[in-house]
Amino acid sequence: MLDTVVRILINAVALVVAAKIVPDIHLSIGKAGPEWVKIAIIAIVFGLVNSYIKPIVKALSFPLTLLTLGLISFLINAAMLLLAAWISTELLDLHFTIAKFPPTFSGAALIAAILGSIVISIVSTVLGLLNVGRRSVL
After folding, report:
1. Can you give the pTM of this predicted structure?
2. Maximum CA pair distance of the chain?
3. Cα–Cα distance between 118 and 121 in angstroms, integer?
């Protein structure tokens, strides 16, 4: 249970860092309270998309992964981030947009999603390494 909460917090921090670094990622970040609950819900959506949909997409795109020597994984990660933004905005009304997506998809949204997914991956990896240290102590 504690590991799940820590993983959600890592995703939330990674999303906030990506929103601060990549100019086209818009996430409403307040001082405390309801805005951080919204960010936690977006982090849960992002975690669920990466847990359940991403493995299926990666398995189906395996031939393309071999053909492009793994570069397609950048597009898959960007697509998962865009899907999380769509679910958060359209279905849950949480206003997480990437370069006006949703509803408008453009090249700027794809570039911002690729850059955002790279930032999220780096932050999640660094915080995950710190989380490993916490696990070994417990």
Report:
1. 0.87
2. 47
3. 5
